[in-house]
Amino acid sequence: MRKLFSAGFTNGTVNFSLLLLRVVFGAMLLTHGWPKLMNFAGLAHKFPDPLHVGHATSLGMTVFAEVFCAVFVILGLLTRLAAIPLVILMGVALFLIHGHDPIAEKEKAILYLAAFIVILFCGPGRVSFDSLIGR
In the chain, at which residue ranges do the beta strands (DSSP E only) sit? Predict the structure, then answer.
């Protein structure tokens, strides 16, 4: 019972938590990006363009983040670098795409943004390709 109220932690629990965070949020985001990649031509002309760079370019940047960066985060490979486009993507989704929506519409973007900021700050943990490369 004492452990339930303890603020202590071990390196193993932190590393497992970071692995779980990376895999769960990366895989969830991948399920949003994969359909966009598979239907790129159909979405290219009607995809939102909040940064005014063109619909196809906005979709391309979104697919890059949601598919390729998500895979890198899942693997723990170049994790902090891959988290940067994800943080930017979720910031754009939260503040530009859903900026005037009620909080319930912003919930997913807030959760993804928080998770990828944690990954950006904390890194991938020991169970990652970054950790293997760094040895």
Answer: none
d(CA 114, CA 121): 11
DSSP-derived 3-state class of residue 34: helix
Separation of alpha carbons 16 and 53, rounded Å: 39
* Torsion-angle region of 17 (φ positive above 0: left; ψ -120 to 50: alpha; else: beta): alpha
Q: How many CB atoms lie within 10 A of CB 11?
A: 9
Successive 10-residue mean pLDDT values, the chain, 135 residues: 77 93 98 97 94 96 98 97 98 94 93 98 94 84
Rounded Cα–Cα distance for residues 13 and 101 (Å): 37
Helix/strand/coil percentages in the chain, nearest 5: 75, 0, 25
How far, in Å, CA of 62 to CA of 101, rounded? 20
Name the token pair of 44. 């290219």
This prediction has a pTM of 0.91
